[in-house]
Amino acid sequence: MKRAKQIVDPRLLIPDEYFSPGHRACQGCGETIALRLILKATGPNVIIANATGCTEIVSSPLPQTAWRVPWIHVAFENAAAVAAGIEAGLKAMMRKGRMPERKIGVLAVAGDGGTADIGFQALSGAMERGHDMLYICLDNEAYMNTGIQRSSSTPYGASTTTSPHGTVSIGQKTWKKDLPEIMAAHGIPYMATACPSFPDDLYCKVVKALNVEGPAYLHVLAVCPTGWRCASDLTILLGRMAAENGLFPIYEVDAGRYIINVDPGELKPIKEYLSLQGRFRHLTDQDVDFIQTRVTERFERLRKMAALTGPQSPHTTEAEISQANQQPS
Ligand SMILES: Cc1ncc(C[n+]2csc(CCOP(=O)(O)OP(=O)(O)O)c2C)c(N)n1
Ligand code: SF4
Ligand SMILES: [Mg+2]
Fold first, then answer.
1. Is the CB of 58 under 6 A from ligand 2?
2. Rounded-to-integer distance, Cα 180 and Cα 22, Å
3. Among 86, 134, 245, 282, which residue's Cβ finds the most Cβ atoms within 10 Å?
4. What's the rounded Cα separation, in Å, for the pair 282 and 170?
């Protein structure tokens, strides 16, 4: 199987933890595994606007916090707008000589509900205006913090508390909204998907996205054992399976060029992945075949985009990663 080039030697990873242990996330929470890696890649020179959701709730029970970088809890709707304001404010302060010129990463972090649904307008506007910021969606495929309600990023057939399966319903009746493609269609300089099951790939993409001039978007699959009703030691495996069966392709759109970073060659069947999760356990063989057809078609479409948009650009270089890790604190 063709994988993202392993260019991050573990020794390159800074030992500091900017998302500290001791937070309140469930065992095996993919969101917090992702955050820990993301903050290792950003280093301390970063300001984060975090929409309400699991990440915010589990990390900031007053008077404690798991964040060792400047962090602002914002409303569900406006993570991107707040991050855009921070970026514009920093720019103005530096221009007026009120603070030294230096690179400070500006991040917005939100769940799939806060991104695909309720915060979408602010996100679209910030990307369109060209703010130099990185927006990260931690996609656990439902509104988990408030009790596993379906979002527009919930996959077809999944049973949630507001799309329960039963005699008249398969569960979620709509296909997962394709946020990565919607963001790529904004024509931003960098869009990528990632998953903490591929830590080197996730790390490289955060570094790359922060080095890009202008807006960047990262869509991270975050397995949620509680909402997916799966064993908590399956988090990393399920992330890998989703990439290798095409349900969550790991790819990037770098200056308009599509690059598939995890290409399994022949896609693995989705059946085993679905059978490991309680939210899909009611699906019949016919249902699984129906979903499989669509997944295969979508992945072929992605392959065509990669072939159509030209030669692959090099991934983040080791020099860029070292440079990012050496930024003054
Ligand atoms: C305007 C508004 N509506 C509803 C809520 C309640 N609420 C808080 S977190 C949340 C779910 C968040 O879902 P998501 O963004 O997917 O993040 P997750 O918890 O899954 O990580 C909801 C509905 C709110 N805080 N504000
Ligand atoms: S409900 Fe899911 S996303 Fe939220 S803390 Fe638990 S495992 Fe993480
Ligand atoms: Mg969610």
1. yes
2. 32
3. 134
4. 8
Under 8 Å between Cβ of 264 and 243: yes
> Which token pair is 77?
């709707």
pLDDT, tens only, 259-301:
999 999 999 999 999 999 999 999 999 999 999 999 999 999 9
Residue 306 · residue 2 · CB < 8 Å: no
Compute the chain's Rg from CA coordinates: 19
Q: What is the DSSP string of 159-174?
A: --SSS--SSS--S--S
DSSP 245: T
Options 3.30.9.10, 3.40.50.970, 3.30.499.10, 3.90.1010.10; CATH of 2-325: 3.40.50.970
Interatomic CA distance for residues 209 and 288, integer angstroms: 35
pTM here is 0.94
For ligand 2, is residue 140 a contact (CB within 6 Å)?
yes
Q: Which amino acid is at 309?
A: T
**94 C-alpha to center of ligand 3: Å?**
36
Q: Whose CA is closest to atom 2 on ligand 1? A: 76
